[in-house]
Amino acid sequence: MTEQTPHEPPVVVGVNGTQTALRAVLWAAHEARLRRAPLRIVHAAPYATEPTGPGRRRADAILARAYTLARRQGHAVDVHTQRSDHEPEQALLEAADRAQLLVLGMAGGQRLTDALIPSTALPVSSRAGCPVVVVRGRRVPMSPGRPVVVGVDDPATDSAALRTAFDDARRHRTPLTVLHARHGAGPWRGHLHERDTQAEAFGHLTDALSPWRTRYPDVQAGLRLLLGNPVDLLLREAVHARLVVLGTHGRGAAARAVFGSTSREVLRACSCPVEVVRPSAWHAVSGTTPATAAPAPSAVTTPSTPAWTNHPHDRGELW
């Protein structure tokens, strides 16, 4: 076990001695192996004030257990540990400034509200200098073949989330579902005008997303445009997903304080890991700018080859 600083930006995982945190360690170790990145395990121990006191021994034991678990997975990962004297939120935010990804655990069924936040996951996700994955539930859902789901409002402003999701699908060799939810009273049976409107929206989304298929020809991508509450639809997709990716568009201190309502509610109830991607943090890590993050529009399209798969068995789906 070492506290030296790795040369490449690491995948960072926060631990606090709980089983929830250890599940996050498993997820982070697997991700670090696929990214060929070092893994840094961070524990905030402001209580460990005496070099030889019980607090220091407890902190060292927490880090040692997490380190051993990461190494026992058989992953070819360079594992490092770090004990911080700061409070958890500050320690994780500082670690995120030097990371390519921050992974946190949050117990299943834990409720998050604006008035009371019983976890560091929400405030850290809204402020971290890199993308943040929150691992929830009682198991580590790394099942091969499970898709990654990305929620998209506008492809033009969600390029960071889209690129994160496409990169993840390529890295894990899994399908990708791009989900766009539109509020509505329900299916449009008998409402021709509403159906025409939805068909037009599907066409616009298909055109806007086609350049992503050109950039990632090896990713099996499906587009779903559904009527309903975005949170409910994302949670439904998450049941069979390996990862849900969400972009945030908050600007300024006030926006960061309230966080996105969709992100907050999905983090609150999602059954699989959720990756929160703030554009400014993602561009800082990836070295891109908003102008270079999204692929250029395709100059040539091939009508005989559908750009996106769709799923007609879903209620509210468009062909």
From TrEMBL:
Region annotation Disordered: where it falls in the sequence: 288-319
Biased composition (Low complexity): 288-309
UniProt xrefs under InterPro entries: Rossmann-like_a/b/a_fold, Universal_stress_UspA, UspA
Protein name (Swiss-Prot/TrEMBL): Universal stress protein
Lineage: Bacteria, Bacillati, Actinomycetota, Actinomycetes, Pseudonocardiales
Pfam families cross-referenced by the UniProt entry: Usp (PF00582)
Species this protein is from: Pseudonocardia bannensis
Family to which the UniProt record says this protein belongs: Belongs to the universal stress protein A family.
Source domain of life: Bacteria
Gene3D superfamilies: HUPs
Start and end residues of each UspA domain: 11-136, 146-278
